[in-house]
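job 3f2a | input accepted
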Amino acid sequence: MSHHRLARLALLATGLAALANSAIAASPPSLATPDITHVLNIRGEQQVSHAKGYQSLGTSDSKGSTSGSSTVTLGSNPSVSTDMAEQTRNIGAAAGLHGGSTYSQLIYQFAYFNPDGGYGNVAVHVNAIDNVHASASGISASATAESFLEISGGGFSTYLNHCAGADTAGRTPCGNKGTAAILPFDLTLKQNTVYTVRLRVDAQSIANYELAGLSQASAWAELAIPGLSVIGTSPSGGRFVFSGGITPVSEPASWALMMGGMGLVAGAARRRRKAAPVAGGLE
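job 3f2a | predicted structure (283 res):
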């Protein structure tokens, strides 16, 4: 094959690649609608709420001494939270374990859209933050709280898990699961590539109805990504696009406000559990 023909083929390949990049990135990619799931299970009675839409959803329930809640927030601070508490004292009744479990999950998509960027790399800072807590006291009480964060797309995937557990019988509720908090981190992603974010939190509490004394367990978990931002200078003409209803902010001040808000929510949940009355028996 002649050098002239090779040169023409090389130019043709370069032109086709540029055309493909231009065609793919000419308009923002189509992103899936946010997917929201709540599951609340108290004493064997399960509530499931599932929706695809732009609204924030939540559910809560209580039966005797067991209470649980599950919430998802869209908008500028995508977040999930869940709470489960059990306090038991059952004088003169048969002993047994009672409690419940709950989880919240939010799935949405984003891309760094840049008509002139092709599939070049972009360094992204993920302002992720979580808060998990579990406590147990009395006889055979156990609690577990977990947060999960996954970002995947374009052949790439990262997964983070944080677990907190408490058990009065010497068991290890978290087993080999991760015990490190989810904190802000950096990723190298591709421009004009769709990535899927999955946020999930789980909480479980079990306590023993015994003949004398008090057993109690509680767990709560929160996880949020209040912003994504480009590290360094943003590629010319580029911007983040998100599933409808998701508009994360990237300003550090907004992230700090979100962290403070999560602390206030956690404090309110703790005060609510401390004020909750202890039931005298099974329903």
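job 3f2a | The two ends are 87 Å apart (CA to CA).
job 3f2a | closed
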